[in-house]
């Protein structure tokens, strides 16, 4: 992940610090029917952070304007409503001509059904293993889905 992205609080997010770790990149939104997935994403963070894993939340407002807030509003919502401790990036575009370079690198990866290309909705997930391999998950895949949990466990750096 050699791309530059700002953190939600401003300043570089320094993705290089995740090198050698397993990272679940998720485009997130505060006003979506899938927003309750924040709770499950935080559970993954709590369960695996000490083993070389992080969730990386990437706010995006491209799906029916479901992430309209400012950086401060997004941060406040995530921390007070769901107790989010995982890092959040600046709000970006994941589709179209303004697609962020991070997503330009990810969208060619097929999910279990073979889907590649544009992000379909909020909460689409990409698990990046320490070796750089990527596994893509449908937005409706819950964070506690056995296939996702198994993939996270398999991607954890070996001690």
Automatic annotation (TrEMBL):
Cross-referenced InterPro entries: Glutathione_peroxidase (IPR000889), GPX_AS (IPR029759), Thioredoxin-like_sf (IPR036249)
UniProt keyword list: Oxidoreductase, Peroxidase
Molecular function terms, GO-annotated: peroxidase activity
One Pfam family cited in the UniProt record for this chain: GSHPx
SUPFAM superfamilies, alphabetized: Thioredoxin-like
Family: Belongs to the glutathione peroxidase family.
Protein name stated in the entry: Glutathione peroxidase
The species this protein was found in: Actinocorallia libanotica
Native organism taxonomy: Bacteria, Bacillati, Actinomycetota, Actinomycetes, Streptosporangiales
């Amino acid at each position: 992940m050699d791309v530059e992205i700002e953190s939600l609080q401003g300043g570089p997010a320094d993705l290089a610090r995740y090198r050698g770790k397993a990272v679940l990149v998720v485009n997130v939104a505060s006003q979506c029917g899938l927003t309750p997935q924040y709770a499950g994403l935080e559970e993954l963070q709590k369960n695996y952070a000490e083993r070389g894993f992080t969730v990386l939340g990437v706010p995006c407002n491209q799906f029916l304007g479901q992430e309209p807030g400012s950086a401060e509003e997004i941060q406040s919502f995530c921390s007070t409503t769901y107790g989010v401790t995982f890092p959040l990036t600046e709000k970006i575009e994941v589709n179209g001509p303004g697609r962020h370079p991070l997503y330009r690198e990810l969208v060619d990866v097929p999910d279990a059904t073979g889907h590649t290309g544009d992000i379909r909705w909020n909460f689409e997930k990409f698990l990046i293993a320490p070796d750089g391999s990527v596994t893509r998950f449908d937005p409706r895949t819950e964070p506690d889905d056995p296939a996702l949990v198994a993939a996270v466990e398999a991607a954890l750096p070996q001690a």
